[in-house]
Design goal:
about 240 residues; Rossmann fold; 2 domains; two-stranded parallel ribbon
Length: about 240
Amino acid sequence: MEFFALPPTDGAMRQFVTIDADYCFKIPNNMSMEEASFLEPLSVGLHACRKANIGIGNKVLVLGAGPVGLITMMIAKATNATMALITDIRDHRLEIAKEVGADETVNVSGLSAQDAVEIIVEKLGEAPDVVIECCGVQSSIELAIKAVKDGGKVILVALGAEYVNVPILEVVAKEINLHGVIKYSNTWPAAIEMIRSGKIKLDKLTLAHYKLDEAVEAFKYAQKGEVIKVFIDCGS
């Protein structure tokens, strides 16, 4: 199995791509191309939430308010989570998180892991049952382990460095269930239905639009982190 844009496979920024029909899904007529562009991160978030097996009444902490983090939080709320708190280091992303359903937000910039944990527990009323890590940096993985309740679940979604230092004794002492997820599996039909039915609303997730021949400029703009997602129109 290969994924476009996951090394060593190139991405799909071209006007035509040949793909086996078994791996293609028809987009409903009422779904825009902008909405369809979120199907990949939506599938990632759905796979993560399924792996977490979020139960009714669970409180969920999502680390990182990028496209995957925001959508994962939205899915957690749309399924069973009673409360969802999301963290980031950019205030404007946390403002968007509030608009799309986050119960609480925390800007962790400059905070120690312990200070962040205390704020998170205060806002949630208790330690989270599930932590979904969508940053991939060592400090975020450490925070996930320190924040989750005893016997809770930590789901690692983001791809970061090959090796990181983690408080492994804390994983053992707290009997944490540590799970890694890679991309997605059998999630696209459900992801399409979530958008089609309106269960997940994407209109508040900001997009910047570029033409295919402006792809280099699009990547440069994306690196600034000023919008949630950059949309490149491969048909233009």
